[in-house]
Amino acid sequence: MIVKFQSVATADIITFADVARALLKILGKEPTARGVIVPEDMTEALARLAALCHKEGESAEAAPDSGVGVEAHELVALSQRVQPFIRMFDRAHLAGKPVTWTAAKDFYED
């Protein structure tokens, strides 16, 4: 399933439900068909995403992976996938605009 994140302050981000679910879990949001992150919550959201990037960066340095027997899509860490969201939330926060998401239905689990 596709999930679309939008803000009038930035371009849209379209992602698959598994990535959106992981992102929303980090942000403390439910993976419902529609939702919003208000500008007042952006500072905390950015801090949580930065902490994820820092944590995954440390674990990647500690245990490098050879990539053997791993699917290509599994080689992209969540910390890399959230980079566009960090930019989106930062720009939306500076503009004082919310970020919304929409999906065809709730996407708790596939």
Describe the structure.
- There is one protein chain.
- This protein is globular.
- The chain has four helices and four strands; from the N terminus they run ββαβαααβ.
- The N and C termini lie close together (9 Å).
- A hairpin with a 6-residue loop joins strand 1 (2-6) and strand 2.
- Helices cover 45% and strands 16% of the residues.
Any chance you could write out the topology, listing elements then pairs?
Blueprint: E1 2-6, E2 13-16, H1 17-27, E3 34-37, H2 42-62, H3 78-81, H4 83-95, E4 99-103
Antiparallel strand pairs: 1-2, 1-4, 3-4
- Secondary-structure element order, N to C: EEHEHHHE
Derived from helix and strand composition plus strand pairing, the structural class reads: alpha+beta
Note the main sheet. 4 strands, antiparallel
The total count of strands amounts to: 4
Strand order, main sheet: write it out: 2-1-4-3
Low-confidence stretches: none
Mean pLDDT metric: 87
Question: What gross morphology would you assign?
Answer: globular
End-to-end C-alpha gap = 9 Å
**Rg on CA atoms, Å:** 15 Å
In DSSP terms, counting alpha (H) and pi (I) runs of 4 or more, how many helices? Answer: 4
How helix-rich are the residues, as a percent range? Answer: 40-55%
Strand proportion, as a percent range, falls in 15-25%
